[in-house]
Specification:
CATH architecture of the largest domain: 2-Layer Sandwich
Keywords: ATP-binding, Coenzyme A biosynthesis, Cytoplasm, Kinase, Metal-binding, Nucleotide-binding, Potassium, Transferase
Largest sheet: 5 strands, mixed
Strand content: 15-25%
Structural class: alpha/beta
Number of domains: 2
CATH class of the largest domain: Alpha Beta
Shape: globular
Subunit structure: Homodimer.
Number of strands: 10
Function: Catalyzes the phosphorylation of pantothenate (Pan), the first step in CoA biosynthesis.
EC number: 2.7.1.33
Bound molecules: adenosine-5'-triphosphate, pantothenoic acid, potassium ion
Helix content: 25-40%
Family: Belongs to the type III pantothenate kinase family.
CATH superfamily of the largest domain: ATPase, nucleotide binding domain
């Protein structure tokens, strides 16, 4: 079985793929000081809780935080005897090479989203991922990542308001009742919620304007469905897109003898 690990700047998600479906998805805060042994205690406890018995033979990692990869490699080696594939490293093949400026290190999460989205939908896509950052990945007709947009993440924007302004509390993002807020929290929620609805609409419209073929828009990340309540922003929402992309890249490496 394949263990897929998606390590973002905020959260790290583990998911076990049995070849047909994901058996479970476990989430922990990204913390570079966590050791291989700590990962295993957490992981095995939750698997026992969910009564999942697995024999993990393969591990694939996508990490936007370089420092955590070392301990995840030790975790894979020590507890599963597996040498993990790490997306973005030279020995991890990609189905389609990105076409970007020389010297650009595209975030591995964006490469993985690209592979997952192309596998499901073919090319000419915009993938919008609401993580620590809100990213837009343009997937060309042939499946290559050809660029995109990086905007501050939703929770990051709310946190920045709270940190910078003494009178502004910490608030969670939600869809406000009205645009005109009649209290501080409602004002902040309105600014961020409708601000992001506008950001997504405008950026997608401008990407479409620069691109010479019709494009579909895929939303992913925890907040995609929240924003979709407000407006028709996406053709589809797929919460498991990054995990799916990891299985696609793993299978591609198996087929090509690299894993
Ligand atoms: N209505 C909501 N309000 C606030 N947070 C939410 C809401 N719905 C989902 N979330 C949170 O959004 C996050 C979505 O996770 P996702 O993996 O997409 O990005 P992330 O973990 O924040 O970022 P990264 O992948 O960059 O670490 C989760 O932490 C989840 O708890
Ligand atoms: C933009 C983030 C932080 C989103 O997770 C990540 O993809 C990243 O660190 N990217 C590196 C820069 C780039 O993708 O061009
Ligand atoms: K993510």
């Amino acid at each position: 079985m394949l263990l897929c690990i998606d390590c973002g700047n905020t959260n790290t998600v583990f998911s076990i793929w049995d070849g047909e479906r994901f058996l479970c998805t476990l989430r922990t805060a990204t913390e570079h000081t966590r050791t291989a042994d700590q990962y295993f205690v957490w992981f095995s406890t939750l698997l026992a809780h969910h009564r999942i018995e697995t024999r993990i033979t393969d591990v694939i990692i996508s990490s936007t935080v370089p420092r955590v990869v070392f301990n995840l490699r030790v975790f894979a080696d020590r507890y599963f005897g597996a040498r993990p594939l790490v997306v973005g490293k030279p020995d991890c093949l990609l189905p389609h090479a990105p076409r970007v400026d020389q010297g650009t290190n595209v975030g591995p999460d964006r490469l993985v989203n690209t592979a997952g989205a192309y596998d499901r939908h073919g090319g000419d896509l915009i993938v919008v991922d609401f993580g620590t950052a809100t990213t837009f990945d343009v997937v060309a007709h042939d499946g290559a990542y050809v660029g995109g947009v990086i905007a501050p993440g939703v929770n990051l924007s709310l946190e920045a308001l709270h940190m910078a302004a003494a009178a502004l509390p910490h608030v969670d993002v939600t869809k406000p009742q009205a645009v005109i807020g009649t209290n501080t929290v409602a004002c902040m929620q309105s600014g961020v919620f409708w601000g992001y609805v506008g950001l997504v609409r405008e950026i997608c419209a401008r990407i479409r304007g620069e691109y010479d073929r019709p494009m579909r828009i895929i939303g992913t990340g925890g907040l995609a469905s929240l924003f979709a309540q407000a407006d028709v922003l996406f053709d589809t929402i797929e919460d498991d897109l990054t995990m799916h992309g990891l299985t696609v890249i793993h299978a591609y490496n198996k087929e090509n003898g690299a894993a």
